[in-house]
Structures are given as structure tokens and as C-alpha cells.
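Follow-up to my earlier ticket, as requested here are the two runs.
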Amino acid sequence: MALAGVVSRVTGFARTLVIAAVLGTAAVGDAYNGANNLPTMIYELLLGSVLASTVVPVLTRARRHGRKHSREFTQRVLVAAVMALLAVTVLTVLCAPLVVRVFVADAAQRQLATWLAYLLLPQIFFYGVGVVVSAVLNVRDSFATAAWAPVVNNVIVMLTGAVFVLLPGPVTLTPASMTTAQVLTIGVGTTAGIVGQTGWLVAALRRNGFAWSWRVRPLPYTWRPVRSGLPVLGWLLLYAGISQIGVAVTMRVAFDHGGVSIYTYAELLFQVPYGILAASVLTVLMPRISRAAALGDHTAVLTDLSRGARYLCAALIPVAMAMSLLGPEFAELVFTGRVDADAARLIGTAVACSTFGLAPFALVMLQMRVFYADNDTRTPTMINIGMVLTKVTVLAVSATMLPNELVIVMLSVASSLAYVAGATIGHILLRRRHGLLGFSAVAVTVHRVIWATALAGAAGLAAIALIQHTIRTPTLDQLATLGAGAAVGTAVFLLATHLIGIPEIRTARTLLTR
């Protein structure tokens, strides 16, 4: 899974560079990125949290009743999900102009975003099917194959970018000058990426030995899995609605300040270490936590919570330091020439200023899984209220008091502040419910990792200062800065972990050398 995560994030970053190169970060890039965020927003608002948060615990409990019952119940869940997703997708596509009007004020940009929304909103259906199929694979203890699915999406979108470049069209892209062929190519190609990703997952499910049979009668049998989720449905929908308030405010502020593409690309960079280092840990832990919760084994739940928190902090704290030091140079190196220099600089600045939220983000995702495993959807909704209030407040103050460039940077910073608030609230609520959480071991790990990270950061900063003082050629300066900072920082961090003694790092290093 870690290998798949690395390949997925590398190809995802390459896809981002391709899209940035062909569309830029001005009005056309903002229209595309804004429209491409709509399927995710609406999917999360209407079904995403319901599917992602309830399917794994529900299927895990069904497996306790035997293989035959589990297979039949899973078939019904799949049929119910497909029917609901199809209805939601058709309705949303019909409402595309109304959805776009909420976010985009400029008339020309709104027209382009609307046409793109018609082409991109069908992704809702395929996102949902992919989530349900992934949940079935995870419950069946199959993780690695599904982790490769995003690579399919990334490759298809990169090929789409290549086709887009070969099309005849205007030298300078604007919302009014884009040709119909260009709009169709980028829209259909992006959606085809999600279709390919979902097709890979369905094929993986079949290879796993599960035959997706449509012989199950849609009604009334599909009502049983739906009925089992009704007690938690209201809070999940409220959670999704609250989340999308935060997303909607973020997107509106981003559009008003011309920062949609910059925010999107900074967010993608922010997600790279999470996808490589944290997502695999959380994916493996979710079925374990769900099984332990279903058996009433709270000791096992807390053990996995503590173990997950230790490994997440040990992995993400040093990465956050590295991204804060090297993020600006990296962004300027890879984005300059594909977008203008000011936009590349802002992307790097946004990443560097927001990496403090990386570990809290992973922790709050872990906490949510513990609550959902207990069939508690109310508490995550309360946590989410605190997160969204934090984010909206920061953005409201920033939009009224700060200059345009700083507002764009604060889009990313506000998200990280929300993660810090969410992790804090989540820990307090878990402590009230379960008492001692075994986080004394987590505190020890965090304390040691911070010391090792501080030493590595100081050494990396010294190496960066030395390189910048001795090399004046811009591109060579950036390459040498990244290479020296990463090499020196990594070496000092590993030496410090050996001297200080951090079991989680030692275990990971042992596994990698086997």
C-alpha cells in the first residue's frame, strides 16, 4: 500500500503539473479547478460521508453472521448504493447552472465553469461506486490492489492534457476563447479518469473472488442495508452539510481573490505525504477497529488508536518540517514555467505556512474512525462544527483585513487551523468517553520526534543557507538547495532517532531493510 501510495502521489503530482501547464492559474484554470471540485463537494454533501463512514462498520458486522449472509448483504448494499448514486448524479447534472452560480460571479468564467460542470458532475456516480467497492475490498482484507486505482486516473488525465495541447486553439486561453473541442477534451478526459479508476476497483473486486451479481432484486431487499443505516443517517447528513459550508466559503473566497488554482495545487501538495504515509495506516486500521468495536473490545480499540497516533506523528512531524523548509523552493522549481512566477511562489508559500496541520489532520481522521466504529455519528458532527467554525472565522477575518496574496495563503492556513481544532476537540471527547487513552506513550513519541525533527531542521536550514550563499545561478541554486536540505536533514534526523531512541522509526527502518 505504501508503494502504491508513492506511485499514486507521484503520478498525481505529474498530473497536476500537466493541468497547470495547459490551463494556468488564471480564469481558465480557476474555472476548471472550481468545476472539478464540484463533484467531490456535492458527493460529500449528499452521500459521501454516509457511504465512507457506515459501509465498513456495517459490512464488518454482517460478516459475523457467516459467509452466505455477508455475501448476500454486501450485494444488497451495492445495489442500494448504485441506485441512490444514479438518482443523485442525474439530479445534480440537471442543476449544474444553479450550482455554479453560487460560486462564480464573473459571467464569462461562469459560462465556462457551467459547461465543464456538465461534463464533470457525472463523476459523482463513479466516486460513490468506488468508495463502496473499496469498502468491500477492505472488509475482505484486500488493500494493496485498490491502492493502485488512483494511478489509472492520473495516467488518463495526463494523456488528456497531451491531447489538449495538440488541439488547435487560441495562443492565450481565456474563458471566452476556448474552443468547443478543448472544453470537451478536458471535461470528458477528466471524467474518464474517474471512470477508469472505478473500473480498476470493480475488476479488483472480481479478482478477489467476489462476483457482483445483479440478480438480487432491487426492492424490497435493498431496504434492509438502508434501514440498518437509518439511525445514523441524520447526523451523517448534517456532518456532510456542515463540511460543505466550509468548502463553499473557501471556494467563494478563492474565486473572489483569484486563488482557486493556487489553493487547489497547494492542497494537492499538502495531501501528498498524507496519502503516502497516513492513508495506508488508516485504511488498515479501520477494519481492525470496527471488528474490535463490534465485539465490544474497547481495550483493542484504544490500543489501535494509540498505535495509529504514534506512527502517524512519527511519520508526519518530520515531513511537515521538511515541507515548511523546502516547500517554497520545490514549488518554484516545478511550477515556474508552467504557471507564472508569482503563482508558483504563492503555491510554495501556502504549503510552507500550512504544514503544521499535517499531523493534526491525520489524527482527526483516526479519531473519526474510532467514533464511527462505535456507530456514533453525533460526536464527529460536533467535532466538525468546531472545525468549520474555525475555518470560516479565519477566512472571514482574513478576507476583510489582509491583502489579496495573503488571503490566498490563508485559504490553506485556515484548513490547518481547523484540523488542529478538530484534533483537540476529538481528543477531549474520546477522553471523556473512554478515560485514559494510552496517550502517555504517544506523548513520549511526539516529544522525541520533535527533538529529532528540530535537530534535523536546524541542520537542513544551515545547509540551505550555505548553498544559497555560495551558488547564484537560479535553477542550479534551487536544485542544490533541495538536494542539500533534504539529504542533510534526513541524515541528521535518522542519526538523532538512533541516539534518542524512537521505536516507531526503528521498526519502520527495520521493515524497509528486510
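Run two:
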Amino acid sequence: MRKLVALPVLSADALSSVAYGPEALLVILVLGGAAGLAYSVPVALAIVFLMLAVGVSYRQTIRAYPHGGGSYIVATDNLGRVPGLMAAAGLMTDYILTVAVSVSSGMAAVTSALPRLADDVVPIGLLVIAFLLAGNLRGVRQAGALFAAPTYAFIIAVLSLVVVGLYDASDRGFDPVPPPPLHAVEGVGVLLVMRAFASGATAMTGIEAISNAVPAFQPVAWRNARTTLTWMIGLLVVMFAGTIAVVHFSGVVPAPGETVLSQLARRNFGSGAMYVFIQAATALVLLLAANTAYNDFPRVLFLLARDDHAPRIFLRLGDRLAFSNGIILLSVAAALVYAIFDGRTAALIPLYAVGVFLAFTLSQSGMVVHWWRGRDRHWRKSLCFNAVGALLSAAVFVTAGITKFTQGAWLAILTVGVFLLVTTRIRRHYDAVREALRLHPQSIEIPGRTMSPRPDDDPSALPSAVVPLREKQDAEAENTPEEIRHLSVVAVDVLHQASMRALAYAASLQQPVLALHVSPSEEDAERFRESWLLWGGHLPLRIIISPYRAIVAPLISYIESLHHQRPDLTITVILPEIVVRHWWHRILHSCLAGRLRRALRPLPKIVVTTVPFHV
């Protein structure tokens, strides 16, 4: 991506948080009345310093991980498996809440302009999530250039508010307008200020998005990514600090039924076209921010599944080359959270801060270890930057966890604990299955009788032209065993005891056999071919390269091709099947047989069978 496109697309989450971050800060301070609001500027300045520190820290991450360094990767590489899983838990909580908070804030922007929709925010918000689900399943998320416009529109809208608001304040000599009479419901103390700081710090969500997507930039990728990150941090600081300043000078306070941005827009521009533009830009950029989670959440799930910490169904790409299972899981989780909290942004914010800053803390701590171990050029400076970012992020995480514990932070902390338990149990199960399937020297034996395809049945010798299918009644007219001509196709993922059992079963039928393997790359294919030759290469092997990690579609396509070219053959597709002891372990293993049966059912003379292996 060019920087002009990457900036709005990858910064949408971070910049859109200006729509709710300043208000989240003010909602807490207003509990202390006018005395509480007096702390808005000092707290905002502390958050600005935090933004700068974390932004500089992620510049170091981009330099150290030019191929993309998300919190899960950095924490796992440098701190170990458990910290990596904690970072992943924080990230996934962050992405789920990004969807829920962005949709709820977008609905708040809409209802501020159209109050009659206030009673329908939950069903409308759920429809928005359903729209995001449908769009991402169809691959709409790839149209990055189209999504750039809402972010630029939002930047223009907020900067217009800031410029006009400060210009009006300058006419008054920058004397703040007194806020309306406020009734304090809490005393102003350290606890109130800390809660406000933790809530306002949610304006930093999405800062790490650029460090995750370094390979998406044009060369030199890491340098362009750092430049884009710098622009993003600069815009975020100006927009956040400017909004707080205008609120301070205009005397606006949070009010039920209308957002702070809506109040500022109405005060500065009236209810005309500019007001409508600001509200529409706010709603659209929040929708885009929700959509960015659909890029990152499935990717984290893919990395977890690759490391055996999540079900392997999350490795699979859908027909539109999207991680469909991860997209569906994100939509369901976000919809549940949104509905449970009635689409109220203020109720969701306490959960948000915990996950965000847990990931920040572990990522930056991992970078400290990275620089200490590597000690390359300028390592001391980089280590100091990341150490400051880690300490400040940890301070916000602890603050949010303590001050907002009873307001919902407990749920986020509990979610992290449950996530750790589940992912470690999944890894333990996969390790046990791997040990059970591991090939032993005595299991690698030459079959007593190897049945290769006859020359006229060899798929490589089949004519390239497609032979027209005969009528169904002719194609399936064999009524005696002598009339049936077989070809067994064994799908082999890896060479282990289950696949060996399937190959042995196929060879025992004393019919022509073909082994079929799907590899994501030429390198993986070559590694598998070497293993196959080490075993002895007793059967013919065909390898299909599937660069998008799709398995079912290439298998179906190849089998359909065999069937069309030789409709006289009865093709038996043999699959190794892992049979587990408990029903809840089934979701951790492939349901390939069922999918192949459904896809191949329309074709005559195709048999799909499984060879079970119990673990």
C-alpha cells in the first residue's frame, strides 16, 4: 500500500477513538462536578505523553520486526509461551470490543442527530455487525482504497471543530465558558483521576495496527511504515488534545442522548450541512474502525492455530480467501457483548482498557528483552524507549484493572484467565495426539504388496481433453464386481500413523492407488516429497500447490478432473480420521470427510470413506 492509502486504512481504529476517548475521560471527571472537570486538561496532557511514548516504542518494534510484529509474536519470541498467550488474549479482547465500541459510538453519533432512533440502538447495531459479517465473508475488506475516504473525512471534521472552537475561544481571550451547574456525586481524589486517565487512554486503541501490517507497505516497507506511524501519532495527538481544549474553553459537558462531538459541532456550526457532515463522518469512520478488527482478529487466531493453541479450523481460508471461521467468531462475540451491554459505550469502556494495555505492556516488555539480547547498534536508546512504553502501559493496565474492577474490568481479566486455560488445554491435547501419531521405526515398513495405478489408470497418463460424461444410468450400470474398475485416492496431509494406516488400507484392497497431498508452497511440497522418499515412495504421489492454504477446494477440483477424464473409473477417496475420546475434542480436528461427501455427492461413481485411528 501507498502511505496515503495505508494511513487512513490502518489508522482508522486509532483516529476514530477520538470520537469516544475524550468523552470517556470527561464522563468520569464530571462525577466530581466542576472541581473534577478542572482536571481534564492535566489528565489529557498525561495521555498525550503516553501516546507519544507508546508511539515511539512501536517505531522500534517496526525496526526490529520488519515483517510484521504483533504483540503475540513479539511477546512469544522474547518472553515465552504464556506471556504470548496473554498478549493474544488482550489482543482478541481488544478486537471484539473494537467492533462493539465502534458500533455503539457510531450509533451514538447517529442518535445524536436523529434522537428518535435512540430506542432502537441495539437492533440497528446488531444489523450493522451482520452487515460487517456479510461484507467480510464476501471479501469486501480488500477494498482498502475505498475505505480511505471516511478516515480523511473524519480528520477534516475534527480539525474543523478544533480550529473553529479555538478561534472562538481566542475572541474571548481564551477565557473558558463556565460549564452548566453540576452536582458532584463523588469526591475529587486520586481514585477518580486515575479512573478518568484509564478511560481516556482508550483513545490509544489501534496504535499497533501499523506494526502488524509492515509487509503491506511499498518498499522500503519498514521505513514507510515508520513514517506512517509518525503521521498517525501526530494526528492522534492533535485531534485528541484539540478536542479536550475546545471542550475546556466552550464549557461543554457530557450529556445523555448527545455525544460531546455532536454538542461541539452543533455549537460551532448549527444544525446545517456541516453538522450533518461531521456526524456522518464520525459514524462512517467508526464503522471502518470496526471493520479493521476483521482483518486482525482472524490473523491472530490463525497464528494461534498454527502454534496449536486454537482449533485448526481457523487455519482455513474460505472461498473468498478470507479466514471465514475467525470472521464468524468475531461477529458472534461482538454481537453478544454489544447486546449484553445494551449498546452503551460508557459500559463497554472499562472492559476495553484492560485488553488494550495488557497487549501493549507485554509487547513493549518483549521488545526490551529483544534489545537486551541482540545488543545491536543503538540498542540502548531503543531499549529505553520500549522500557518507558512498557512501564507506562503497565501503569494504565494496573490502574484500569483496579479502578474499574467492579465496573466490568473483572470480566476482561476473567476472560484472559479463561483464554489461557483453554488455549493451554488445546495445546496439551494436540501434543498428546502428535505423540500418539508419531511414526516409530517399526511403523515405517514396506507394504507386503504395493498396488500402483495401471498404465491406463495412471492420472498422469490421462488425456488432457475432457471426456464427455455418459448418462447417469450408463455411468452407474455396473452390477457385478467384475465390471467395476477402481482407483483409490488417499489424501495425505502429513506422514504419521493415521495416514500410514489409510495408505495400508488402500493398498490392501489390491486396486490401483494414488496418494494426494496439498501443500501451501513449493518449499513445503519439497519437504513432504523428501519425507515420502524417505518412507520409500511405495505409491505414486501427486502434490497440489495451494498458496492460500485451502485444502478442500483443490482436492475437489482434482477429483472432479479425474472423474471427468475417466468416467469409467470408480474413484474411492480414502481419508485418515482421528477418533478422539471426548466429544468436545472433535472441534479440534478436521471434518474433511463430511465436506468432501457433500461436495462430491452430485458426481456418480465417487466413494468417500475414512480409516479411523483412535487416540
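The only thing I checked on run two: The two ends are 47 Å apart (CA to CA). Let me know what else you need.
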